[in-house]
Amino acid sequence: MKKRNVLALAASMMMLTATAQSTARKFTMSVSDDGQAILTGYLPQTEKATGRAVVICPGGAYWAVAENHEGHDWSEYFNSQGIACFVLKYRLPKGNRNIPIGDAKRAMKTVRDSADVWHVNPYDVGIMGSSAGGHLASTISTHTDLAYRPNFTILFYPVISLDGAKGHVGSAKNLLGKDFRNPTLIKQYSNHLRVRGHATPPAIILMSSDDLSVPPVTNGVAYYSAMRSKGNNCAMYIYPTGGHGWGFNKSFKFHDEMLANLTGWLNQLPSPAKDAVRVACIGNSITDGSGIDMRERYGYPARLQEVLGKGYNVKNFGVGARTMLNKGNYPYMKEPAWRDALDFQPNVAVIKLGTNDSKAVNWQYKDEFATDMQQMIDSLKALPTKPKIYLALPLVCGMEVKSDQDINNTTIEEEVIPIIRKLAKKNKCTLIDMREDLNKPELMLKDKIHPNAKGTAVMARKVAEAISSK
Fold first, then answer.
1. Cα–Cα distance between 363 and 366 in angstroms, integer?
2. How far apart are CA 18 and CA 414, in angstroms?
3. pLDDT tens-digit series, residues 179-227
4. Cα gap 226→10, rounded to integer Å
């Protein structure tokens, strides 16, 4: 053999050896009482570990689990980037949807609960799914409580709709059984209909235009559209050809391009420090970012994250039109966002409510405003994290009052704000007053209620100043 060929062979062997060394440890464990749901972990070398992790749900139409090319074959790719990888062989539903959903939830919880042992950041655990596994992954992303919900979602040619005319009828039959034509269940588990602003994690969707098994437009594209319309971060890549089910197969014509797209997306995905100070932004449409396109990027909590930096983990729990009053037309404390805010176990909570309470239809219950706000404060104080609580005063509203459904700035100034000030003093909460800072036409939308993108930047700076000064 020529010397050049020997050197080339040696170099190739060295590369293979280095590649094999990306995985420091492989293990399996059960995540179901009957021992049938199996989680296989692939942990990267400690010196490479970034703390990021991903739980993988292979596809198979809820009839089988394609655990190799849509599961185990991905381990080297993730481990080489310092990402821990966990392949879930979930149990098949056979008409009982709670079986695979329960397995995926337990897998997510197991990874987070074992974060210290496996060198995982519990605030950077994603989920990935292909085909029916994509439906399972998107279900966990849209239906579950915060403890199980991933921090990011990777979807390959996912089944999203359970409408037989739009999705994959076999997956619908296997998941829902005899109820696969039940319109209520179809709507409930067609996951593009379950996307929530701020709550549904950032996602990347990858699929082929010529997929005849799971139509891209009514599935992956529908999920992207729902995410985009809610202002959530989402990316989508559609390759010209490839059909369905290519997974990690290198025979897929766009395999290298696909990996580059996925890697680029993962690299730009924010990763909060494991010990970052958790900040919960609680409020109505002003916190939510109403009227701002891509509010997950340009809303005030997103801007606050930019100002505070990696030492903080800021989450938006704003919901439009909500009231502090429990007897208001849309009470905040009856929203899933409130449960999420508590489950987040914040170290800091910024409460900005009271604007919608000023509507006559709500302020008829004004005698209960202080009691209800005290209930919110007490619920936060009772958390193990004992968060520092900030009360932000409602902004100046230039809206003309024409009915009992309109925000009333006079009520805000003369009645709502004095109550908030008293509660701040009583509970030793820091008061944040941004009224004059935001009372400028160039910082507000035309409705004279909500800040525009420039206004949210001002809000973020004011809130950051208050947090940083303590």
1. 5
2. 70
3. 999 999 999 999 999 999 999 999 999 999 999 999 999 999 999 999 9
4. 51
